């Protein structure tokens, strides 16, 4: 879930060396799952050509190798792993197509990097889902790396270039597109009895929530850029702020039917709660400034009510942020960044000044309905997940007739020797 400084190496239960990290989160990555070593050769021997089996096994082994230390990699390591997944996907798709009749021939194993939880299922569609899901998580992870540079000294101000922020938006849209495809095009291919064995983070509602969360964080970046642009009008900033509220609220709603009792679900819920409060605080702030431009006393009263709500939400969001960071797996308390970097000072200051100016109007109308908090305006949502489509199935499958391959006795004995040597 992001990137942070490492502390001493420890050993996982499987004897692997693994660094413990207290990570920092700008873009939330619910979990990164990696493929485990899987026997592909024996289940497929005699069913497809040795060339196909060897290629499938080699490409998957490359993904396994690159995945192990991804938490401690940089953006170039993420790109290398993404390329390996893109190279592997076209060939594993051949196992999933109905014509091959090989969908349940191999037991594929994946585990979470945070806690080594394994899920092993004999389903090529499970493997395909896991690959595309990993692509999405890596895109979120890459976005987080871009927003939390490693070469910044403690205590010094972080500066992320405008180009880097645009790259973050591209990564977030790509992640959202992959997850949206998982929900609408891959899950529907998987039998219900297989989905019952899925870990919680592969639930439809959770995948959908993370897809929408990625869109919300795109708007968060866009709003930060707009706040730094002199040409961006107050109305544009308010619209972006209100869109951000809608996206985070939708993401939170998607989890309502999900099992969120494990650490991943709880952490995601806490993150969305925190970000919803941040988003509402900013939206009420900008809505207050727009209302204050009106000439009627009612406009000023409503403006002060919005600013008061923004100030209260800001205080609640700080507590929600702490709750998120303390929930397992523990993450660092991040410094305010983007739009929130200025809002932590602006909202209390402007709320105080406006109360000083218009306090007499509030006193005069203290029993009036004018002092009720106005609703935030609703706007059509402008962002959609980036379009994602499966690649074309690898051409090596074109000559597979799905009939048992005839091997000579010499070839069969040679294969047995190779298997024995690997054990």
From TrEMBL:
Pfam families: BRO1. SMART domains: BRO1. PANTHER family: BRO1 DOMAIN-CONTAINING PROTEIN BROX (PTHR23032), ENDOSOMAL TARGETING BRO1-LIKE DOMAIN-CONTAINING PROTEIN (PTHR23032:SF2). Belongs to the BROX family. PROSITE patterns: BRO1. It comes from Brachypodium distachyon (Purple false brome). Residues 5-423 form the BRO1 domain. This is BRO1 domain-containing protein. The gene is LOC100839641. CDD domains: BRO1_Alix_like.
């Amino acid at each position: 879930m992001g990137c942070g400084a490492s502390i001493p190496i420890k050993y996982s239960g499987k004897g692997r060396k693994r660094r413990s990290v207290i990570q920092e989160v700008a873009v939330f990555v619910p979990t990164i799952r990696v493929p485990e070593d899987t026997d592909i050769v024996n289940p497929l021997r005699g069913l497809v050509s040795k060339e196909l089996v060897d290629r499938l096994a080699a490409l998957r082994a490359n993904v396994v190798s690159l995945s192990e230390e991804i938490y401690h990699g940089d953006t170039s390591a993420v790109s290398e792993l993404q390329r390996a997944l893109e190279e592997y996907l076209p060939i594993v798709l051949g196992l999933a197509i109905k014509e091959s009749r090989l969908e349940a021939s191999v037991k594929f194993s994946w585990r979470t990097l945070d806690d080594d939880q394994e899920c092993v299922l004999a389903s090529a569609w499970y493997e395909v889902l896991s690959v595309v899901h990993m692509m999405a998580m890596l895109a979120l992870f890459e976005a987080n790396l871009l927003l939390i540079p490693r070469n910044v000294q403690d205590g010094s101000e972080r500066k992320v270039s405008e180009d880097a922020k645009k790259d973050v938006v591209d990564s977030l849209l790509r992640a959202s597109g992959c997850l949206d495809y998982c929900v609408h095009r891959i899950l529907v291919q998987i039998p219900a009895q297989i989905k019952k064995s899925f870990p919680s983070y592969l639930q439809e509602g959770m995948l959908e929530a993370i897809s929408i969360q990625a869109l919300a964080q795109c708007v968060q970046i866009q709003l930060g850029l707009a706040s730094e642009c002199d040409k961006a009008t107050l109305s544009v900033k308010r619209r972006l702020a209100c869109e951000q509220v809608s996206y985070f609220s939708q993401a939170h709603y998607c989890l309502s039917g999900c099992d969120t009792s494990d650490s991943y679900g709880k952490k995601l819920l806490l993150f969305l709660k925190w970000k919803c409060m941040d988003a509402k605080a900013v939206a009420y702030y900008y809505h207050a400034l727009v209302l204050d431009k009106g000439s009627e006393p009612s406009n000023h009263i409503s403006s002060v009510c919005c600013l008061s709500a923004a100030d209260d939400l800001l205080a609640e969001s700080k507590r929600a942020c702490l709750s998120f960071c303390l929930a397992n797996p523990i993450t660092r308390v991040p410094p305010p960044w983007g739009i929130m970097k200025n809002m932590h000072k602006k909202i209390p200051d402007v709320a105080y000044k406006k109360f000083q100016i218009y306090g007499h109007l509030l006193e005069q109308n203290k029993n009036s309905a004018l002092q009720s908090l106005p609703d935030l305006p609703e706007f059509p949502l402008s962002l959609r997940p980036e379009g994602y489509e499966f690649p074309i199935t690898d051409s090596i499958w074109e000559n597979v007739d799905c009939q048992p391959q005839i091997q000579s006795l010499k070839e069969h004995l040679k294969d047995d020797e190779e298997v024995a040597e690997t054990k």
